[in-house]
Automatic annotation (TrEMBL), chain A:
Keywords: ATP-binding, Nucleotide-binding, Sulfate transport, Translocase, Transport. This is Sulfate/molybdate ABC transporter ATP-binding protein. The keyword Endoplasmic reticulum does not apply. Residues 3-237 form the ABC transporter domain. PANTHER family: SPERMIDINE/PUTRESCINE IMPORT ATP-BINDING PROTEIN POTA, SPERMIDINE_PUTRESCINE IMPORT ATP-BINDING PROTEIN POTA. Pfam families: ABC_tran, TOBE_2. SMART domains: AAA.
Automatic annotation (TrEMBL), chain B:
It comes from Asticcacaulis aquaticus. Belongs to the binding-protein-dependent transport system permease family. CysTW subfamily. This is Sulfate transport system permease protein CysT. CDD domains: TM_PBP2. InterPro entries: CysT_permease, MetI-like, MetI-like_sf, Sulph_transpt2. The gene is cysT.
Length: 344, 297
């Protein structure tokens, strides 16, 4: 186990930004820290980097007590959301910084440093831009320089705070593939913060879901998606529709029809159940919830519908292009029937 | 999509190799009435700066080039110019370091009495120069509070060039502090933290990361303090002793020449001062331009 975080609590005056947070990371693991704004992601990352101290709890890395080490001695590469590049240094000088500030005894020779810089410039695909200043780079290029600068110190662990937050959707998608590739090549334990569930599920070996300073669930992306432990996780990972139902023995009963109910706990009685857009079937006659077609939009390989029930509730459903949904028009009346629901 | 297919799988996308940030070809006009405001600017600058300077430049030539050269090359004038610019430069250099420390303490630390200290910095600025001159003189005289500490060591401060130097340090301090303070206060804490996580000691962070970003502000403060010190009169003449060839500053020499009704001579010396000041500012601005070319904005 390379990183072991136990019972971390951090308060700002009397507001608990982190409350009893514990998790572990295997050597070489790629971990995502997922949570809405203000859930404590940055706070946690800063504690790991040694930029802040927790009120209680422990942080161990390879058996060593990291809370006793200063940020300087932890050798943890951190990539800030704002990049935090040194503006008066060229790209190459930025990358070399961590090596240049080492004590004379540990510092590599000038030639070795230059070679490392070249290797990293190649890795981030900016070989020709070593002499540029950060102000002469695009956002995505700055992001990569910040990453190279952190990698230059051969970090024991890499922390990235919303690394693609400021970039547009297309660049994000490609950069995150590339980040994964770099991780797989260097094999350094990596924790990255995001509030984008798609990014977390797409990229990470495991995802830690944070809410209000507490861990809601930890798991592999598929596990998290298939077996969410709470309504929060279910809703955070994708679109969710809510309906009331009566639950017993893993079956949810509605007005005239039933659906299998998945639940982390053995719940029964009147409950609010949730279903995903693609766990819904449409039929012209029922049984199901009567609804009018509010909008009909292509969403990539499928068709997305918004349906409004007579009492004003709106469902979002998703169907194959070639299905019973493809013939519908705006204003048509259909019956929605969930094929699988979740209960928390 | 074809470009995607030809790219190496790991290539970070959407970055053209020759990328250059776009340069503004047209500056958007924020204020309306460009012609009117430019007209006002030029008229105002002409009345306040240009015309008096032109008059000064026209003044010294009644005895011809020779007369001007004689007035300027007079050993007493040369000695005073050397003293004036030399002490002004030395005082600005001292303030560069002292002012940086003061600005650092005032922005980086919280302590009781901080706002009082902060207000104190402006005092040399606000005090009438003659008042400053008289009080400095009494402090640094051989029987004054501070002067009496140095007198046993054989060091005389008041009535020597050293006294001028002290007075110029006094008047120059606020310029450096007030130039550096806002820049230091706005320095991005994350940049500093980045340096820490990369293994830099606090000293290395200060010298390699923070100081370079303060350089433009330090230079600005330096040129302001230097310019002020060159022209300083009130606070200096009391403490200087005003001995020709030793502790006589150029502005005083000009006054003396005026009192002797040597208007042409006074103007000649004034022009020499003007030229030297202009040259100094030119050099400092040149350095600043070089710095800004290095990608700071
Ligand atoms: N220095 C501080 N002083 C007081 N409160 C703070 C401080 N830093 C963070 N907080 C509070 O702690 C909580 C968690 O903040 P944090 O920055 O960790 O959120 P986050 O999950 O990173 O959010 P985002 O996605 O918006 O970046 C927030 O409610 C914030 O207001
Ligand atoms: Mg954050």
């Amino acid at each position: 186990m390379s990183l072991v975080v136990k019972n971390i609590t951090k308060c700002f005056s009397d507001f608990a930004a982190l409350n009893d947070v514990s998790f572990q990371a295997e050597p070489g693991e790629f971990l995502a820290l997922l949570g809405p704004s203000g859930s404590g992601k940055t706070t946690l990352l800063r504690l790991l980097a040694g930029l802040d101290q927790p009120d209680t709890g422990s942080v161990e890395f390879d058996g060593a007590d990291y809370l006793k080490l200063s940020a300087r001695d932890r050798r943890i590469g951190m990539v800030f959301q704002s990049y935090a590049l040194f503006r008066h240094m060229t790209v190459a000088q930025n990358i070399a910084f961590g090596l240049n500030v080492r004590p004379a005894k540990e510092r590599p020779s000038k030639a070795e440093i230059a070679a490392t810089v070249q290797r990293l410039l190649k890795l981030i695909q900016l070989e020709d831009l070593g002499k540029r200043y950060p102000s002469q780079l695009s956002g995505g290029q700055r992001q990569r320089v910040a990453l190279a600068r952190a990698l230059a110190i051969s970090p024991r662990m890499l922390l990235l705070d919303e690394p693609f937050g400021a970039l547009d959707a297309l660049v994000r998608k490609d950069l995150r593939r590339w980040l994964r590739k770099i991780h797989d090549e260097t094999g350094v334990t990596t924790i990255f913060v995001t509030h984008d569930q798609e990014e977390a599920l797409d990229l990470a070996d495991r995802v830690v879901v944070l809410k209000d300073g507490q861990i809601e669930q930890i798991g592999k992306p598929l596990e998290l998606y298939r077996h969410p432990q709470s309504a929060f996780v279910f809703e955070f990972l994708g679109t969710s529709n809510e309906v009331p139902a009566t639950v017993s023995d893993g079956v949810a009963s509605f007005d005239g029809f039933t659906a299998p109910a998945v639940s982390p706990k053995a719940l029964s009685g009147a409950q609010t159940v949730r279903f995903r857009p693609f766990d819904a079937q449409l039929s012209p006659t029922g049984p199901g919830f009567e609804a009018k077609v509010l909008s009909l939009l292509p969403a990539g390989s499928s068709l997305r519908l918004e349906l409004q029930t007579p009492d004003g509730k709106v469902f979002e459903t998703q169907h194959a292009h070639e299905s019973e949904a493809s013939d519908l028009k705006l204003g048509d009346t259909v019956f929605v029937r969930p094929s699988k629901v979740y209960v928390f | 999509m074809t470009t995607d297919a030809t790219r190496d799988a790991g290539a970070p996308p959407f970055v053209t190799e020759g990328y250059k940030p776009p340069k503004a070809t047209h500056k958007a006009r924020v204020l309306p009435g460009f012609r009117l405001s430019l007209g006002i600017t030029i008229t105002y600058l002409s009345l306040i700066v240009l015309i008096p300077l032109a008059a000064l430049l026209a003044r010294p030539w009644e005895h011809g080039l020779d007369g001007v050269w004689q007035a300027i090359s007079d050993p007493r004038v040369v000695a005073s110019l050397r003293l004036t610019f030399g002490t002004a430069f030395a005082a600005a250099v001292v303030n560069l370091f002292a002012g940086l420390v003061v600005a650092w303490v005032l922005t980086r630390y919280e302590f009781p009495g901080k706002s009082l200290l902060d207000a104190l910095v402006d005092l040399p600025f606000a005090l009438p120069t003659a008042v400053a001159g008289v009080s400095l003189c009494s402090m640094y005289a051989a029987n004054g509070w501070i002067g009496s500490l140095f007198a046993p060591l054989g060091i005389k401060i008041a009535y020597t060039p050293l006294g001028i130097f002290v007075a110029l340090i006094f008047v120059g301090l606020p310029f450096i502090v007030r130039s550096v303070q806002p820049v230091l206060a706005e320095f991005d804490a994350e940049v500093e933290e980045a340096a820490q996580t990369l293994g830099a000691s606090p000293m290395q962070t200060a010298i390699r990361v923070i100081l370079p970003s303060l350089l433009p502000a330090l230079l600005t403060g330096f040129s302001l303090a230097f310019a002020r010190a060159v022209g300083e009169y009130g606070s200096v003449i009391f403490i200087a002793g005003n001995m020709p060839f030793v502790s006589e500053i150029t502005p005083l020499l000009i006054v003396i020449k005026l009192e002797e009704f040597d208007y042409a001579g006074a103007a000649a010396v004034a022009v020499a001062m003007l030229a030297l000041s202009f040259l100094s500012l030119l050099v400092i601005n040149g350095i600043q331009l070089l710095l800004s070319k290095r990608g700071r904005a």
